[in-house]
Design goal:
The chain is of the alpha+beta class and 280 residues long. The protein has helices at residues 7-11, 29-36, 90-97, 147-154, 162-174, 178-181, and strands at 40-47, 52-57, 62-67, 74-80, 83-87, 106-108, 116-123, 136-139, 189-197, 204-207, 216-221, 225-231, 251-257. It contains 6 helices and 13 strands.
Length: 280
C-alpha cells in the first residue's frame, strides 16, 4: 500500500457537523413535563419474550416502555396510525441527533412527511451517557435482527428474530398476510440496547444492557401512532441475538392520557413544509 507523504495532515483535518441543529424546532420540555406529571394510564400491552406486540397512541398522549422482569432490549417500529407510508426514519433521526437518543430528542418520520413522530420526555437510563468503549443506550444505528442476515451468516431459518416478530405482530393487527405486512417493517429504535462502533475496525458492537426492572423510557406521541415492539431474542444482548439461548424477558408498554390542561395550545406538527417541486 502506498501511503502519501501528507497522510497525517489529511487525517488531522477537523470534522464538521453535517446537520447543525441550532435552527431545529425544539420541543417545549416544560410543557411536556407538565403533561407527564399527573398523567392517567389508559392502556397496557405486554410484548412477550421473543415476540412482538402492537399498540396505538393518540396524538398528545404518552407511552412508556418498561423493563419488568429482567434485563431486556426491544426493537421499536412506529407508523402514522392512519397512513403506514409515514413511518420512523432511523437514518435521519441519527443524522440529526446522533447514534443514540435520550430526553429532549425525537423520532422523525420518513419523506415526504419528515416531522416529529414522538419525543423522548423521560429516560431512566439517561445517566449512562457514553462509556469508555463508545457504547450508549437507545440506538438508531442497528437495523433489527432478521432471518435474512441469519441465513446468510449461519445458514439457518430462525423465526423469532425481531424482523419476523414485528412482521407477525403487524400482520395480526392489520388482518393481512405476512407478505403484505413485511414491507412496512422498518429500521428500529433499539430501546435499552447498549451499542457502539469499535475504534479499530468500525464494527457495530453490542454489550450487556444496563437496563434493570423498573427502568423505562417515556415518549410524547406527536401524531396518532401505531407502534410495534419486539422483545429481542438476544435478551440483554450481552452475548448473542437471534437464538433461543439467551435469557429473555417481557417488555411492558403503557399508554397514558396527559394531565388535564397541560397541553392546552399544543397541536400535532404538520407535515414537512418543503414544496415538493424538486426544482421543476
Amino acid at each position: 500500500m502506498d501511503i502519501p507523504a501528507d497522510a497525517e495532515a489529511r487525517r488531522a483535518i477537523a470534522p464538521v457537523i453535517c446537520y447543525p441543529t441550532d435552527t431545529l424546532p425544539q420541543p417545549d420540555m416544560v410543557q411536556y413535563a407538565a403533561a407527564r406529571d399527573g398523567m392517567t394510564k389508559i392502556d397496557e400491552v405486554i410484548a412477550p419474550p421473543r415476540e412482538a406486540a402492537t399498540f396505538t397512541v393518540p396524538a398528545g398522549h404518552i407511552f412508556r416502555i418498561s423493563s419488568v422482569e429482567g434485563p431486556q432490549v426491544g426493537d421499536l417500529n412506529l407508523w402514522n396510525a392512519s397512513d403506514l407510508s409515514e413511518r420512523f426514519y432511523s437514518g435521519k433521526t441519527r443524522a440529526l441527533h446522533g447514534t443514540h437518543i435520550t430526553t429532549g430528542e425525537r423520532m422523525w418520520s420518513s419523506f415526504p412527511h419528515m416531522r416529529p413522530m414522538a419525543t423522548v420526555i423521560h429516560d431512566s437510563l439517561g445517566w449512562y451517557g457514553i462509556d469508555a468503549f463508545g457504547g450508549s443506550v437507545h440506538d438508531v444505528i442497528g437495523t433489527r435482527c432478521d432471518p435474512y442476515t441469519g441465513n446468510l451468516l449461519q445458514g439457518d431459518h430462525y423465526h423469532h428474530c425481531c424482523h419476523s416478530n414485528l412482521t407477525r405482530a403487524l400482520a395480526d393487527h392489520l388482518g393481512v398476510p405476512l407478505n403484505e405486512a413485511e414491507p412496512h417493517v422498518h429500521d428500529v429504535l433499539n430501546v435499552f440496547m447498549c451499542t457502539g462502533f469499535t475504534r479499530d475496525t468500525g464494527q457495530y458492537f453490542m454489550k450487556a444492557s444496563p437496563v434493570r426492572p423498573g427502568d423505562h423510557i417515556d415518549f410524547l406521541s406527536e401524531i396518532d401512532l401505531l407502534g410495534a415492539l419486539s422483545a429481542c431474542p438476544g435478551g440483554d444482548c450481552s452475548s448473542e441475538h437471534s437464538s433461543d439461548a439467551a435469557a429473555c424477558h417481557p417488555l411492558k408498554i403503557e399508554v397514558f392520557a396527559p394531565a388535564p390542561g397541560a397541553l392546552d395550545g399544543w397541536s400535532s406538527p404538520p407535515p414537512n413544509g418543503y414544496d415538493g417541486s424538486h426544482g421543476r
